[in-house]
């Protein structure tokens, strides 16, 4: 099947996947762009699952301070190697997570950390379940999984803290 270059470019723009991966996904979906995007997303989830048990001993700490200097957040984002920790994509992910924490007031990283008798809504209280503030159609876990697929390493949120003046 002959795949148009414009379709490959569209899939690449939407997914940040490699050109060859985009072409293969389009061939598998018989030229359907949405099908190719979904196939690449599923491939990314499968890749993330394979890497989930790998140790994450490197990473960075990112900070966000709101323009009024009344709200701030710190986040420790871990990965497998210092090489990945120094990439712009990893640093951007850490910054976006700090921004998310400052904006949405997450209290826990995942639902497993919620106390059993808690009345809190897990989608509001758990960072990984919250909708991403820059793209509400995706959760924070989806954003991390996509980054794992692109960078090829396991990524985990180590810990985080939110500070608000007067609270």
Features:
alpha+beta; two-stranded antiparallel ribbon; 167 residues; 46% helix; 3-stranded antiparallel beta sheet; 20% strand; elongated; single chain
Question: Can you walk me through this structure?
Answer:
The chain has seven helices and five strands, in the order H-H-H-E-E-H-H-H-E-E-H-E. It has a three-stranded antiparallel sheet with strand order 1-2-5. A hairpin with a 5-residue loop joins strand 1 and strand 2. The protein is elongated, with a radius of gyration of 18 Å. It starts with a helix and ends with a strand.
Q: What's the number of helices?
A: 7
- Biggest sheet statistics: 3 strands, antiparallel
Order of helices and strands, N to C? HHHEEHHHEEHE
Q: Strands of the biggest beta sheet: in what spatial order?
A: 1-2-5
Which bin fits the share of residues in helices? 40-55%
Low-confidence stretches: none
Mean pLDDT figure: 88
The rounded Rg comes to: 18 Å
Distance between the termini: 61 Å
Shape: elongated
Beta-strand residue percentage = 15-25%
Q: Tally of extended strands?
A: 5
Overall SS class: alpha+beta
């Amino acid at each position: 099947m002959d795949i148009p270059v414009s379709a490959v470019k569209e899939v690449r723009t939407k997914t940040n996947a490699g050109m060859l991966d985009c072409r293969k996904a389009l061939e598998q979906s018989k030229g359907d762009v949405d099908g190719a995007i979904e196939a690449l997303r599923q491939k990314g989830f499968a890749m993330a699952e394979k890497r989930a048990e790998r140790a994450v001993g490197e990473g960075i700490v990112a900070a966000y301070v709101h323009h009024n200097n009344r709200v701030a957040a710190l986040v420790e984002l871990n990965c497998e190697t210092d090489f990945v920790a120094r990439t712009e994509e990893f640093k951007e992910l850490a910054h976006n997570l700090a921004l998310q924490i400052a904006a949405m007031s997450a209290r826990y990283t995942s639902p497993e950390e919620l106390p059993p008798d808690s009345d809190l809504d897990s989608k509001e209280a758990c960072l990984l379940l919250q909708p991403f503030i820059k793209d509400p159609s995706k959760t924070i876990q989806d954003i991390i999984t996509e980054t794992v697929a692109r960078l090829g390493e396991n990524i985990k949120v180590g810990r985080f803290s939110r500070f608000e003046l007067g609270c």
